[in-house]
Amino acid sequence: MKSNSKFKGKISTDNNSSTNITGVFAGGDAVNGGKEVVDAVQAGKDGAASILSYLGIKIKIKMT
User: Fold this and answer.
1) In angstroms, rounded to a whole number, what is the distance separating the alpha carbons of residues 49 and 41?
2) Which of 61, 51, 55 is closest to 17 using CA atoms?
3) Contacts by residues 10-15 (CB-CB < 8 Å, ≥ 24 positions apart)
4) Quick count: other Cβ atoms within 10 Å of Cβ 45?
5) Higher-pLDDT residue of 26, 62
6) CA–CA dist 32, 29 (Å, integer)
7) What digits encode the pLDDT tens for the residues 29-40?
8) Percentage of residues in the chain with pLDDT exceeding 70?
9) Are 14 and 1 in contact (CB under 8 A)?
10) Considering the entire predicted model, what is its pTM?
11) Residue 61 in contact with residue 52, Cβ under 8 Å?
């Protein structure tokens, strides 16, 4: 898990947007404290891909 302890009240996740609770994912401002819009869009794509993988759903997502 990447530590977000310097951001009080933020959620810690691993590189797949997973929290320490099985099947629970987090992203966006709750994890990074608020950044640029392009970062938020990419985090959403990454999180969606991680959730689909966790659910065993195999689809192609254009990651740009």
Assistant:
1) 13
2) 51
3) none
4) 15
5) 26
6) 5
7) 888 887 788 888
8) 81
9) yes
10) 0.68
11) yes
**Cα–Cα distance measured from residue 10 to residue 13, given in angstroms and rounded to the nearest whole number:** 10
Please tell me whether residue 30 adopts helix, strand or coil conformation: helix
Residues 51 and 56: their CA atoms lie apart, in Å, by: 9
DSSP state of 10: P
Specify whether the CB–CB gap between 26 and 19 falls below 8 A: yes
Virtual torsion, Cα 44, 47, 51, 53, nearest 10 deg: 110
Q: Which residue has the tokens 């797949």?
A: 16
- Tokens read off for 60: 């192609």
- CA 5 to centroid of chain Cα atoms: 16
